[in-house]
Design goal:
The complex is a heterodimer of chains A (about 280) and B (about 250). Helices cover about 75% and strands about 0% of the residues of chain A. Chain A is an all-alpha fold. Chain A has a single domain, classed as Orthogonal Bundle (MetI-like fold), CATH 1.10.3720.10. Chain A is globular. The two termini of chain A are about 30 Å apart. The relative contact order of chain A is 0.14. With about 250 residues, chain B is an all-alpha fold. Chain B folds into two domains: about 40 residues, no CATH class; about 190 residues, MetI-like fold, CATH 1.10.3720.10. Chain B is built from twelve helices and no strands. In chain B, helix 3 crosses helix 6, helix 3 crosses helix 9 and helix 4 packs across helix 6. The longest helix of chain B is centred in the N-terminal third of the chain and has 34 residues. Classes of the chains: A mainly alpha (about 280), B mainly alpha (about 250). At the A-B interface, helix 1, helix 3, helix 4, helix 5 and helix 6 of A face helix 1, helix 3, helix 4, helix 5 and helix 6 of B.
């Protein structure tokens, strides 16, 4: 039985080794090199790139990334929990409601980000409407700030919150709610004291699954932040293009990977990875 | 709470769909500006007359079709292998590839390709984009196909083996047909993520391999351009239908 199985797993191993682990190994090696004059890397080996991660100039960007990702995750929780609760209680229609969440999610991240740019830019629909109605004379600066980046992140990754929350809520034993009601709990109090504590695994999974892509986001801060709100992802990209400092870009990438892996392991340890997709 | 919950849900769904719906409506606006001046197909005509857009779309289709075919084949085999007996290192790698930030994957692949190609004398191009897309879409295929396999009764395959089928025959004649809809759903998902990718693609694309998302990105950055509205609407509709079909297939 095992020979066929091993043969079937082999191509995936080959792809992952050559196109995932080998590239990571290359940047791991690059992170220990000296920057080349025209991009690329050169000898000698040095730890300078890793030391520079602690430079206040870059720490600000790291902290901002954590803050923006954290706020976006919290807003996703506020928006996602009631929606997941609604879907879980929707009876026969729950699949339809769930699909309504999933379908736009898989439909072009780039276009969904652009849709907000279309709404929010200076000549965008919101400003045009506000000015046509005479509510404002000058276009409001709705785009290219932290708020716009958070909005883009929430819009992009909200389904990652809804799906695991739904999975937990849908499995929840109805008898517990009935017991709470029998014992005199009103619906709000049952929500606070029974439903929310019991959905802790879903909240945990959803939060990690939203936080991870938000922390490593590149496209959203690039387009919605317009180069003014830089996150780790933009800093990485910058090192490989304009700044031409591959070793530092590599060290940054690996640091980001380590954070992501720690978060993922913490989640898997607690058994929350189910319902991931 | 009973009354509040549906209202809240409607608001969140509006948040999901209104931006896209507005974009779609204004893609038919006769005016270049964001005030409605009447219905017109002109931005669709402009999109189809744009040689750069057509070429980029063609590139995206070629990349997505080839990457989907390869990743669906490899991913399906992998899912089957994992269904037979799990493999913690491989499952871990799959999850890791799903959560790796795209920009990290992109620059790592760029650094890797440039390092390898120094010895081989090859340039970045469509082939490097295809390789990158295969790498990131396999995990999606495995997740979808594995979910399908888990709904299947393993006894059917055992019966085939007892009746004298070889392992390969049991897979080919019994299991594969039964997971067919799951494989098709996975392929559609792989196609969608490949067709849509911007971040990784832009890092590993060569001068001759500009894709549709790359053109849209450049247009979006340059400023308001109604052609982006029409092309975006077409992408959303096309990919939306595909995802919907994929979701339906996963349910059957």
């Amino acid at each position: 039985m095992n020979r066929l199985r091993n043969a079937f797993l082999a191509p995936a191993w080959v792809v992952f080794t050559l196109l995932f682990f080998a590239p990571l190994a290359v940047i791991a090696a690059y992170s220990l090199a000296t920057r080349g004059t025209y991009g690329g890397v050169s000898a000698p080996a040095s730890l300078e790139s890793w030391v520079r991660l602690a430079d206040p100039l870059y720490l600000v960007i790291l902290l901002r990334s954590f803050a923006l990702a954290g706020v976006a995750t919290f807003i996703c929780l506020l928006l996602g929990f009631p929606l997941a609760l609604f879907i879980a209680r929707a009876g026969a229609r729950r699949n339809l409601y769930l699909q309504l969440v999933i379908v736009p999610f898989w439909t072009s991240f780039l276009v969904r980000t652009y849709a907000w740019m279309f709404l929010l830019r200076e000549t965008g629909l919101v400003n045009s409407a506000l000015m046509a109605l005479g509510l404002t004379r000058e276009p409001l600066p709705l785009l290219y700030n932290n708020g716009a980046v958070i909005l883009g992140l929430v819009y992009g990754y909200l389904p990652f919150m809804v799906l695991p929350l739904y999975a937990t809520l849908e499995r929840m034993d109805r008898a517990l709610l009935e017991a709470a009601a029998d014992l005199g709990a009103r619906s709000w109090s049952a929500l606070w004291r029974v439903v929310i504590p019991l959905s802790a695994p879903g909240i945990r999974a959803g939060s990690v699954l939203v936080f991870i892509p938000c922390l490593g986001a590149y496209l959203t801060p690039d387009l919605m932040g317009g180069g003014k709100t830089i996150m780790i992802g933009n800093l990485v990209q910058n090192q490989f293009t304009t700044a031409r400092d591959w070793p530092f870009g590599s060290a940054l990438s690996l640091a980001l990977m380590v954070i992501v892996m720690v978060l993922l392991m913490a989640l898997v340890r607690r058994g929350g990875e189910e319902g991931m997709l | 709470m009973k009354r509040l919950l549906p209202l809240y849900a409607v608001a969140v769904y509006a948040f999901f769909y209104l931006p896209l719906a507005t974009l779609a409506v204004f893609s038919f606006n006769a005016s270049r500006f964001t005030l409605w001046e009447g219905f017109s197909w002109r931005w669709y005509a402009a999109a189809f007359a744009d040689a750069q857009l057509i070429e980029a779309t063609w590139n995206s289709l070629v990349i997505a079709v080839v990457a989907t075919a390869v990743s669906t084949a490899i991913g399906t085999l992998c899912a089957y292998g994992l269904w037979k007996r799990g493999s913690a290192p491989l499952t871990g790698s799959l999850y890791l590839s799903l959560v790796t930030p795209e920009i990290v994957m992109g620059i790592a692949l760029l650094a890797f390709f440039q390092w390898v190609f120094r010895f081989l004398g090859i340039q970045l191009g469509l082939h490097t984009v295809i390789l990158a897309h295969v790498a990131f879409s396999i995990a999606y295929v495995v997740v979808v196909v594995l979910a399908r396999l888990r709904t299947m009764d393993a006894a059917l395959e055992e019966a085939a083996l007892d009746l004298g089928a070889t392992e390969w025959q049991a897979f080919r004649k019994v299991t594969l047909p039964m997971i067919g809809p799951g494989v098709a759903a996975a392929a559609m998902l792989a196609f969608t993520v490949s067709f849509d990718d911007y971040v990784i693609t832009s890092m590993v694309a060569g001068v001759d391999s500009e894709t549709l998302p790359m053109v849209i990105y450049a247009m979006a950055r340059r400023g308001a351009n109604p052609v982006v509205n029409s092309i975006s609407t077409m992408i959303v509709v096309a990919l939306g239908v595909m995802v919907l079909v994929s979701e339906r297939l996963r349910e059957t």
